[in-house]
Amino acid sequence: MRLGMVGLGRMGGNMSIRLLRRGHEVVGYARSEESRGRVARHGANAVTSLEELVSVLDRPRAVWLMVPAGDPTENTVTRLGELLEAGDIIVDGGNSLFRDSLRRAAELSKNGIMFVDAGVSGGIWGLEEGYCLMLGGEQDAVNRLEPVLSALAPEGGWARVGPSGSGHFVKMVHNGIEYGLLQSFGEGFEILNASVYDLDLSQVADLWRRGSVVRSWLLDLLAAALSKDPELARVKGYVEDSGEGRWTVLSAIDENVPAPVTALSLFARFASRQEESFSAKVIAALRREFGGHAVREEGS
Q1: Of the listed 171, 228, 236, 275, which one is catalytic?
Q2: Residue 300 — very low, low, confident or very high, per pLDDT cuts 50/70/90?
Q3: pLDDT above 70 covers what percent of the chain?
Q4: 60 prior amide bond cis, ω within 30
Q5: 221, 270, 278, 291 from 285: Cα distances, Å
Q6: pTM (2 d.p.)
Q7: Among 32, 236, 282, 299, fewest CB within 10 Å belongs to which?
């Protein structure tokens, strides 16, 4: 199958290479000349504009986006909506808000263009291991994409989960769960690290990989990280969030679903970015005022 790929970074570039290795044709576009050159060396037809990409694809066309959520996706979908024709397909594989995907699907359908929202998980390992694909949209569109879906995913690793918006909704919750898993590993290993025992954390992580109930791919990755840097001395404890954890918490509020682990995991990421917590200063000052408790002075 011949597929257009817009966005050739860590995800889009590796997905393109995986497709090329499995006999598919890729027409790739990115603003970065370096990114275009990388996929071109693997056999892709790298182009320099959306207009050129659309012109060289066979009708009915399929164009897959792997660009950042928000304005980059909005602008790209809008422009492709102007360039494509009835019967063509746009796939958004970025981490877009599911409500935006619902809106985009409705707008594109007025011109007969089909829209598929694809939650994509797999990270940098997806090139070799495959990507888990969560798809929302019309069944006919998903059926047409089946050859590339089967090439991108491991066996059983892709599914249409429902109508428009559902793919990005499922991926959103997936990432919310990920927040909680990462936080639990972080807290557990901090407790181990702070204990009176001189523990080899790399040894413990590797031990837990073998038969314990917490064994997982994330634990495999943690064991690998600790084996390379046992004290994590080269890592700063500053944790970003992609936005999907926030959206998961907001959806839980909208649906009256208690989700304390996800919410607290999100707030822990916020706390990781503070050099100094003003709220902690307030609490320390209040304890001094009402109870005479000692406080640590700045500079001491």
Answers
A1: 171
A2: low
A3: 99
A4: yes
A5: 41, 22, 11, 10
A6: 0.93
A7: 299
